[in-house]
Amino acid sequence: MVPLSTASFATIALFYAVGLWNNFQLPLLYLRTPDTFPLQVLLRNLILAGTASSGDVTRIGGDNLIVEESLKYATIMVSTLPILVVYPFVQKYFVKGAMIGAIKG
User: Fold this and answer.
1) Band of the pLDDT at 5, cuts 50, 70, 90?
2) For 75-105, how does the pLDDT look when each residue is reduced to its tens digit (9 = 90+)?
3) How many whole angstroms separate alpha carbon 48 and alpha carbon 36?
4) What is the DSSP letter of 34?
5) What are phi and psi of 33, to 5 degrees?
6) Which of 21, 35, 36, 94 has the fewest CB atoms within 10 Å, measured from its CB?
């Protein structure tokens, strides 16, 4: 039974890993020093700080705003990169599970 369930185990493991990787609520509640914050909490703080300062229209120029936006997008890419790297290795189990459960004609 276990060899036939590898696709299910891989799917559950991937969803669990994504859930743990994207979890920012528990570290936000329990951690107090900014040195120990995980990447998702820093990303959240960065996005919230950028949205608060982007409403300021009295600034001269817009270079500061461009740097903030670029930093936000770069941090988002860095935070999604590990999941994007792991997914192709787990994808073969998704295809295998779909082929095992499919109706053959």
Assistant:
1) confident
2) 888 888 888 888 888 877 777 666 666 666 5
3) 19
4) G
5) -95, 130
6) 35
pTM for the model stands at 0.60
As given in the structure block, the two tokens for residue 79 are: 């935070």
Apex CA 19: angle with CA 97 and CA 101, to 5°? 10
CA dist., res. 24 & res. 37, Å (int): 9
Q: Could you state, in order of their start, the residue ranges of all structural domains in the chain?
A: 3-101
7: how many CB neighbours lie within 10 A of its CB?
Answer: 19
Strand ranges (E), the chain: none
Q: Which amino acid is at 80?
A: T
| Residue 10: closest CA among 99, 102, 91, 98 | 91
